[in-house]
Amino acid sequence: MSFSRPAWRLLPGLVLLWAAGSAHAAPSASEEVQALATQMVALSLEAEPTLAYFNGLTPPTHGRFADHSPQALRALERQEDALWARLNALDAKALQGTDLSTYAILREMLEANRGLRVCHSEQWAVSHMFGWQLQFPEFAEKQPIETAALREQALQRWRSVPRYVDTEISQLRAGLAQGYSVPKSVVRRVLKQLDGLLAAKPGDSAFASPAKRSNDVAFQKAFTAVVTTRVYPALQKYRQFLEKTYLPKARDSLGLSALPNGKACYAAYLRVFTTLDRSPQEVFELGQQTVAKNVAEVKALGQKAFGTSDFAEIIARLRTDPANRFTSEEEVFRYSRELVEKAQQVCKGSFLKMPSHALEVRPYPDYMKGSGVSSHYEFEPDPAKPSRYMLQLDDWKEQLRSDAAITALHEAWPGHHLQAATAHAAAQSDLSRLAFNSAYAEGWARYAEALSEELGLYDSDTAKIARRAWPARGMVADPGLHLYGWTREQVTAYAKETGRFNQAVAEELADRIAVLPGQLTAYDSGGLEFRALRTQAEAALGPRFDLRQFHQVVLENGTLPLLQLRANVEAWIQRQQPR
pTM for this structure? Predict the structure, then answer.
């Protein structure tokens, strides 16, 4: 799932929808917020139709990609500004129920997008995490081809890849001229991914899915020809540009402070990923306090498990314990799959409703191997198809059983999959399906790691220790790298001392922070909030507290900004009080 801001198109006349009916009574606050939500969804999908494939929505077309040209981006900004003005003119105090959640989501989306303009991120959009070279194979898998009209749209879309790539290159050239670039290490990772994609024959490539899925022989030949004569040459052109022109001019440093308006840009990204009005310094300090608390708990557990309270020695014991290692790649896969299946069954007693949406564990495709992308979850909006826990097995010899357990529970049950499937099934509007923020999604998954311990899903004390060694360090390392002058070496050392990262994976983490500024702070910004809300509810309700009902309250409205989540929980607590 991409965290990057989509480039949306102008929709002529969109903001005048209500003006056309000005002779009639003005809309109520509820009608206006719903109208704005409808227009926000339309604006999003008009600008980036492929968003619909990941949210179960219907795009206006299957025949084009996003337009990232300066003209399209400026048009988008004008539309956002018009919607923002109307949202601010709305009487929010007159809203109630689901309208409040809709209002909060709209405000968050518009405020976040407007704030990010200072970054000019379209001019340094090279990413090994969520770059177009990774997204397009996913789009190919989801491209509909069931009818002749859909097959024609597929050909139309994929014939446009050269134009898309030319726009990307043009924006990157403009960025270099203005002092914007990504780190050289990130460019090298993207080059490796492009090499992996280009290594396959066009007919067998990650882009050939529409042809493989069709029984129309003429379409098969036509689409394969498009991949051969248009997609592959565009990939090669992009690769050559990155290697010959971009890489020599890319920056050596990792932090945003090296870019124009870097500090303001980082604050904007932090706001986007946490949905909170916390300054970078506040995040940094809260992270340090939380890390100190976690270290104290690790020492206490280490004393019981290993007879020592020395943090470094405890972590060394985790890494050298033969029982905490795997003997084969297949064992890692089997262990993760079996734990995911077990967790689904165990979770049933802690939730009022369990989603029926299936989940499968899959290894990475070949072209992604060795590219620095970690194991992750991919949501499938079609309930007839399984969502996926994508397992990175490159470094299986270095993987610990404790870390494999934590990651599986974070990504699957009771983590991302339970939350995402619940949200999708309960979604009451297209806007709620479209809404996403890292603080809620990753915050729930971090909370799920701790919940898994309560549910007895960890099979060793080493997992309980490992679960506390890493969390909240992202709140420290992320602003440390971008604002406080941390070097690559400092970030990798800080990660490695937790025992969860070897040198190669720690290097991957540093590059991840570089291209996703602020995102790594979202896990514990959100996780701390979920835990705080549960503690508040337990204290207020005492014996009346029901964990299943609490989980229902925090999950039933889908992905929300954290401030609205708090408002919902506090309203629920109030309703549970005796009258």
Answer: 0.91
